[in-house]
Amino acid sequence: MSTTTSTAPARPPVRRVTFGAIEPHGHRVGLFGPGGIGKTTLAATAPGPVGFVDLDDSLPILRPSLGEWDIRRVSGIAGWQDMRDALHSDGWDDVRTIVIDSATKAEELALEWTIRNVKHEKDGVVIRRIEDYGFGKGYQHLYETFVTLLSDLDLHVRAGRHVVLIMHDCTATVPNPQGEDYIRWEPRLQNPGSGRASIRLRVREWLDHLLYVGYDVTTTRGKARGHGSRTIYPTEKPWCMAKSRTLADPVELVQFDRTLWDTLLAES
Known about the structure:
By secondary structure, the protein is an alpha/beta fold. It has one domain (28-264): Rossmann fold. The protein has seven helices and eleven strands. It has helices at residues 39-44, 59-62, 80-87, 103-117, 137-158, 199-206, 259-264, and strands at 28-32, 50-54, 71-73, 97-101, 162-167, 169-174, 182-187, 209-220, 223-233, 243-244, 251-252. The strands form two sheets. Strands 1, 2, 3, 4, 5, 8, 9, 10 and 11 form a nine-stranded mixed beta sheet that branches. It has a two-stranded antiparallel ribbon with strand order 6-7. Helix 4 (103-117) packs across helix 5 (137-158) and helix 5 (137-158) runs parallel beside helix 6. The protein is globular, with a radius of gyration of 23 Å. The protein starts with 27 loop residues before the first strand and ends with a helix.
């Protein structure tokens, strides 16, 4: 009696999807607006202790005005790799909020690191500026460098810490398929015209909240007049990029007032 061996391929193991609990974690918050409006002071009032990566070197001037807030400045940050190493170091256990002041400056450090460390595809080509990579490749290299920072910060978010990115502002022209293009305020981060390798758009996607901090202006008979009061905008407006997962209405910015954080992070 002869026996035959089946040559039919073995069936792959059956896979079953698994479901788990939705664990709470920290919020990713972006603050942007004009210089001197109070972004750093606002970030300092976030739930503390607050660990500051003070790339703009603003705390030595502001610290006396911040009173008893528990603010801890990260030392030894001179470049891009220093910042990444610090974020991967021990010692963050009791910190509730990490502030990067500013992400605009962090992008500059990322550019310096990229030019020093990412070689041209052709041997012997010296890179001194981002355009030296050619055909927009430098912007892609910078993008790939910068997004590693977001991954570093995600480790802290999953550990329950809030992350605040402070950004300077700039104006940008927005294409409008329904009418005329218009100008609005956006974070000052790399944003090539093609839309590819846009750090600005990637950061907006990554954030849970992108808040524009602006001065209040009224228009009378075609003339704009400022009042010195300030407002935090959590949703998109014709004049600013913004978003929030939890906040719908503008919040008045009052120095040292924690209303924003109490509302934004109410369920954290």
